[in-house]
Amino acid sequence: MPRIFVDADACPVKAEVERVGTRHKAQMFIVSNGGLRPSANPLVENVIVPEGPDVADMWIADRAGTGDVVITGDIPLAAKCVEAGARVLKHNGEALTAANIGNVLATRDLMADLRSADPFRQGGGKAFSKSDRSRFLDALERELRVAKSA
Fold first, then answer.
1. What does the alpha-carbon distance between residue 76 and residue 40 come to, in Å, rounded to a whole number?
2. Which of 12, 16, 30, 72, CA to CA, is 20 to 30 A from 129?
3. 3-state secondary structure string, the chain?
4. For 85, what's the count of Cα atoms within 13 Å in the CB-facing half-sphere?
5. Over its length of 150 residues, how does the chain's per-residue pLDDT go in tens digits?
6. Distances (CA, A) of 95 to 20, 44, 52, 99, 135
7. Measuring CA to CA, how many Å separate 85 from each of 2, 63, 80, 97, 114?
8. pLDDT score for 106
9. How far apart (Å, rounded) are the C-alpha atoms in residues 67 and 16?
């Protein structure tokens, strides 16, 4: 049975993960530094890690493996999980796989370099939309079905 790991700090799709995970009877780990309302769902384990850089990421990376699904927007964490055999989804439903994680990491590094070279560069990512949420729900459903059949 696949497990779902959610990098929960700043995750906009926690409720969707719980809804789909419950339908599939998957154990879910909502990992954060705290401040989240715990779920009463018996399939959800709220994991609160100590404060510190990347502590939640390390907790997930140490446990996620083949057959698991990881939800994160953190690209280095995604790379570790893909390497461990987990299926990884970004919040907008984009799958991160062995075939694309190298390019995604390179793009992330390039953008970080560009931002540091121009401190006046403003802006961020686009707003999270209803279509992103819908795409995520469809992608999570597919990933869980594939993980369960493997």
1. 31
2. 30
3. CCEEEEECCCCCCHHHHHHHHHHCCCEEEEEECCCCCCCCCCCEEEEECCCCCCHHHHHHHHHCCCCCEEECCCHHHHHHHHHCCCEEECCCCCEECCCCHHHHHHHHHHHHHHHHHCCCCCCCCCCCCHHHHHHHHHHHHHHHHHHHHC
4. 9
5. 899 999 998 899 999 999 999 999 999 999 999 888 899 999 999 999 998 888 999 999 999 999 999 999 898 999 999 999 999 999 999 999 988 877 667 666 666 655 666 666 665 667 788 999 999 999 999 999 998 887
6. 17, 23, 27, 10, 11
7. 12, 11, 9, 9, 31
8. 66
9. 20
Q: Are 45 and 27 in contact (CB under 8 A)?
A: yes
Q: CA distances (Å), 7 to each of 3, 38, 50, 88, in order?
A: 13, 15, 14, 11
Structure tokens at 10: 């700043």
List, in order of start, the domains of the chain with CATH numbers.
Answer: 3-149 (3.40.50)
Separation of alpha carbons 112 and 102, rounded Å:
15
